[in-house]
Amino acid sequence: MRARFIDTATRLLNEDPRLALVLADISADSFAPARRAHPDRVINVGIREQLMTSVAGGLALSGMRPIVHTIASFLIERPFEQLKIGVAHQGSGVVLVGHGASYDYSTSGRTHQAPGDVALLDTLPDWSVYVPGHPDEVETLLRHAAADGDNRAYVRLSERTNATARTVTPGAFDVVRRGSDGVVIAVGPMLDAVLEATADLDVTVLYATTVRPFDAATLRTAVSDAHPNVAIVEPYLAGTSSAIVAAALVDTPHRILALGVANAEVRRYGTMAEHDRLHGLDVPAMRARITGFIEPALV
Amino acid sequence: MTVTSQLAYADLEALQSAMTGDEKHSAAATSTLDVLWVLYDRVLRVSPATADDPDRDRFLLSKGHGPVSYYAVLAAKGFLDGIDLTAIGTFDSPLGFHPDRNLLPGVEISSGSLGHGLGLAVGVALGLRAQGRTDTHVWVLLGDAELDEGSNHEAIAYAGATGLDNLHVVVVDNASSTHGWPGGIASRFAVNGWATAGVNGRDHDAIYDTFTASHTGRPYAVVANVERKDS
Fold first, then answer.
1. Distance between CA atoms of A290 and A185, rounded to whole angstroms?
2. Of A75, A78, A154, B212, which sees the most CB atoms within 10 A?
3. Which CATH number do you get for residue A138?
4. What 3-state DSSP class applies to A224?
């Protein structure tokens, strides 16, 4: 995904003179050709994430459309007040592109992990959040975000990808499969695991690559056609979208199962697969949790 | 009280007095008055008629505490036409104890939380340069205590290293920083390659001469010294 982002952003800089790219050393080497082509619009401030974010805010105030990129923990968490005050409170728009959010950097430990990124951004109003599940979807969603006026957007890249890309429509959930015993929402790169875990279950599977705004209409339609058992599988903190699901179904009696990353100080390194097992997000655990949620409700 | 015509420096005291309720920041407000007046009266190329012109000079009040001097100067220069100054801080007033650019014409940034303006100013300066607006100047005002915020030092280091010479900083020094600045505030900028100067922050002609001095190829920091906060 990161490689596709670099390629797409480089081409976008060629296409739109209003775009600028702001970096804090991360990925700077990969953008060297773009910087040579556009020295005034490809800006590397060094390892200064507060400044990176404020510079983006200032660029927006001057009339430009900044894309800001680094590792998610240094993009969302470290300069959070710059996002709140330097961007959102000014009424400005930026496109944030983060990679390696939850535990992609599993060997690096907590300092390089940000499973709470979407939950934290949810404390600010009016951000769009895109979670591509495949490199091809990165291009679609990034192009949409960059062209989306002066809105504020976060594109969440991951090392985890689905095997094949789907044709995604920004803002809308994709109905991957229809069933009657419940609805499972798979967010971005969780789709392959969800499909495998629910292969022999009679459930609707929705694929979400835009999670903010949340496609309540598609969810409501899916729930109206099935038992109102809703499981949402997110690659970030478990329960991040539970309140939004509940609000979407406020007039529909329903049950929710929220799967995702546990809110815990996990003092482990190892592989992503090992962290999947720790968080119950590997296929066997996911299958057991979804089955255990849906089947009792059908009795 | 509303202001419908341009006023003079002598009128500022009455304008400030009309805005009550934020007296805890009166020292902060008083410290910036003369610098703000000289900027808007003689230096900045911006007026109510050009407040949205992309080629206007920008002034960013980073030190958003105690904005009554700022509001008084804006009102005297016609930016706040029709706005009731006495309503400051009330529910329906656009005048808050910290300014909001989305509510007030001519206000470039919303500020109040310290340490944001300089980084934003660097971004504005870079954006103007990228757009080829090379004769447009960016000014930002900080307090000496605000300089304690670490975010400023990311901006100081970067702007100096990149020779961002359309960027101008005024640090109003009323000695309110808890631990002070050994070696002087100007040296903090100079070590990163900025042109620097000091000036009596109450002497209008000296302020003007200092603000308009040449600093080709380097960002410019002026330390405007005023009476101590606790004096």
1. 11
2. A75
3. 3.40.50.970
4. helix
In angstroms, the first-to-last Cα distance of chain A is 43
Please write down the HEC assignment for all residues of B180-231: CCCCCHHHHHHCCCCEEEEEECCCHHHHHHHHCCCCCCCCEEEEEECCCCCC
What phi, psi does B59 have (nearest 5°)? -120, 125
CATH number assigned to the domain comprising residue A180: 3.40.50.920
User: Would you say residue A169 lies in a domain?
Assistant: no
Candidates B42, B62, B51; CA nearest to B167 is B62
Q: How far apart are CA B96 and CA A44, in angstroms?
A: 35
Residues lower than pLDDT 50 in chain B? none
The C-alpha atoms of residue A1 and residue A30 are separated, in whole angstroms, by 13
User: Kind and range of the H or E element at A257?
Assistant: strand A255-261
Phi/psi at B27 (5° precision):
-65, -40
ipTM of the complex: 0.96
A92 close to B (CB below 8 A): no
Distance, CA of A177 to CA of A174 (rounded, Å): 9
Q: Helix (H) and strand (E) counts for chain B?
A: 7, 5
pLDDT at B23: 79
Tell me the chain A residues in contact with residue B151 when contact means C-beta distances shorter than 8 Å: 50-51, 54, 82
Model confidence pLDDT, tens digit, residues B150-183? 999 999 999 999 999 999 999 999 999 999 999 9
Boundaries of domain holding A286: 174-298
Nearest chain A Cα to B112, which residue? A85
CATH number of B9-225: 3.40.50.970
User: What three-state secondary structure class fits A128?
Assistant: strand
Q: With a CB-CB cutoff of 8 Å, which residues 138-157 of chain B face chain A?
A: 150-151, 154-155, 157
Residues in B closer than 8 angstroms to A20, CB to CB, are 126-127, 130
Amino acid at A124: L
Q: Structure pTM?
A: 0.97
Comparing CA positions, the residue from B156, B176, B177 lying closest to residue B221 is B156
Q: Encoding tokens for residue A96? A: 């944030």
